[in-house]
Specification:
The protein has three helices and six strands. It is α+β, with helices and mostly antiparallel strands and about 170 residues long. The radius of gyration is 15 Å and the shape is globular.
């Protein structure tokens, strides 16, 4: 099922979706506070492993982040990315709750899917800065996103956690 038009008003960017992807080596690589906060939590949960498990995360330790966070389950055979948790700020921007939907069924997600596949292949967290929006109910012009791999066995990525940061025009005083 493809969701109706008007869901997730992203602007199509020129070039490859990977042109906008920046690999994260350390927390200081991330230019926005909630992204750094999620990365630090993720890094602390690794405990010597390549990736933490999704069950390492507790809602009470993520309270300030949850409105801007998604958990995506990586399904195999065929490969698909299913939205498991979608924060309220994301639902507000999308004007639709996509929890339970496959990303492949959400209009406008083609570039994100390319980047998620990159994450699976490269086993490397990344962020994308200032991806433009067509329109926003709250006047946002763009968003930045951090994407971090999770693994139940410490090696094969079977979940992805993301954190979105909404951005307004610099001259916007509201």
């Amino acid at each position: 099922m493809i969701l109706p038009p008007g869901i997730w008003p992203l602007k199509k960017l020129p070039g490859s979706p990977l042109d906008y992807l920046i690999s994260i080596e350390k927390v200081d690589d991330i230019p926005f506070a909630i992204g750094r906060e999620l990365y630090e939590l993720w890094d602390s949960k690794r405990a010597g492993r390549l990736f933490p498990d999704r069950f390492d995360f507790r809602p009470e330790e993520m309270e300030a982040l949850v409105p801007n966070v998604t958990f995506l389950h990586v399904e195999r055979n065929p490969l698909a990315f299913r939205m498991h948790l979608v924060g309220t700020e994301i639902v507000n921007e999308m004007r639709f709750d996509i929890m339970g939907f496959k990303m492949e069924d959400v209009r406008g997600m083609e570039d994100a899917l390319v980047r998620f596949r990159w994450l699976l292949s490269n086993k490397q967290p990344y962020y994308c800065p200032s991806l433009p929006l067509e329109e926003s109910p709250d006047g946002h012009i763009s968003y930045s996103i951090v994407c971090l791999p999770l693994s139940s066995d410490g090696e094969i990525i079977d979940w992805i956690i993301t954190c979105l940061n909404w951005e307004k025009a610099e001259d916007d005083t509201g």
